[in-house]
UniProtKB/TrEMBL annotation:
Protein name per UniProt: Peptidase M20 dimerisation domain-containing protein
Subunit structure and binding partners: Homodimer.
Stored SUPFAM superfamilies: Bacterial exopeptidase dimerisation domain (SSF55031), Zn-dependent exopeptidases (SSF53187)
GO molecular function, one term: hydrolase activity, acting on carbon-nitrogen (but not peptide) bonds, in linear amidines
Residues in Peptidase M20 dimerisation domain copies: 61-159
Requisite cofactors: Mn(2+)
Record keyword ATP-binding present: no
Keywords: Hydrolase, Manganese, Metal-binding, Purine metabolism
Domain of life: Eukaryota
A family per Pfam: M20_dimer
GO biological process, alphabetically ordered: purine nucleobase metabolic process
Length: 266
């Protein structure tokens, strides 16, 4: 429940609407369907109009920090150094190796952030922190990669004589889309005469969390070059129209046991 005492009076009506959508206790929803751009290149590359999402990957995000003693870049001799940045560099390569060792295309790993201190050209790095993102549709397999990375960080720190610490930022569970939802999406695509392929969502979406309280599914449409989170992110009006029609027909199917015959409003 939103605390309306902390909200401006002008937002009170909106807060009441939001509170009315709150799902309390163990109450479940019948189905949840989300329409989104693919954020990947497959639909465009394969000329498919719709992606029927089968599962949603979830990330385990971790922060690994290495702590050395630093020193002047000229005066600190190589045999005496415990360079935090070199420990971090080794671990970044270990992240790639651990992910590839699974042999699974759905397991991915990214070292997306580096923080160095003092971060100057004439100083041996004293502090190095990495933020690492491991994603998979298989939670157990993903978590084994996390364990491998954690063990690698400890081994690297010991060998390079640096201190280290590991913190998990988040570790959410992946979701499998509800078969009744994916079947309704597939049937709607077929009825509309559109082409489709089965896909996995590799990004966070509302459906990941809604799947915890009811059957969830996703409809993907193509986006140019698979780009998203960029100023030039783009989906054509035709792609958007196709997605909205599939969403509408899917919701109608899920809301009724009878087949939908009147598509004038689509």
């Amino acid at each position: 429940m939103m605390d309306q005492r902390r909200c401006p009076s002008s937002l009170a009506p909106s807060m009441e609407i939001l509170d009315g959508t709150l799902i309390k206790g163990k109450r479940k929803v019948d189905a949840f369907v989300e329409l989104h751009i693919e954020q990947g290149p497959r639909l465009e590359a394969e000329g498919a109009a719709i992606g029927v999402v089968q599962a949603i990957a979830a990330p385990a995000a971790m922060r690994v920090s290495f702590h050395g003693d630093g020193g002047h870049a000229g005066a600190q001799l190589m045999p005496l150094r415990n360079d935090a940045s070199l420990a971090a560099a080794e671990l970044a390569l270990q992240v790639e190796a651990a992910v590839l060792a699974t042999g699974a295309p759905d397991t991915v790993g990214t070292v997306g952030r580096w923080d160095l201190s003092p971060n100057t050209v004439n100083s041996v790095p004293r502090e190095a922190a990495l933020e690492i993102d491991i994603r998979d549709i298989d939670g157990s397999r993903r978590d084994k990669v996390v364990t491998t990375i954690t063990e690698a960080a400890a081994a690297i720190a010991k060998r390079r004589k640096v201190r280290h610490d590991v913190a998990m930022v988040n570790q959410d569970a992946p979701a499998t889309c509800g078969p009744e939802v994916t079947s309704a999406i597939a049937a709607s695509v077929e009825e509309l005469g559109l082409s489709s392929i089965k896909l996995v969502s590799r990004a966070y979406h509302d459906a990941l969390f809604m799947a915890q309280i009811g059957p969830a599914g996703m409809i993907f449409i193509p986006c140019r070059n698979g780009w998203s989170h960029r100023p030039d992110e783009f989906s054509s009006p035709e792609a958007i129209e196709n997605g909205v029609k599939v969403l509408a027909l899917t919701l109608a199917r899920l809301a009724s046991a009878q087949p939908v015959t009147d598509k004038k409003e689509l």
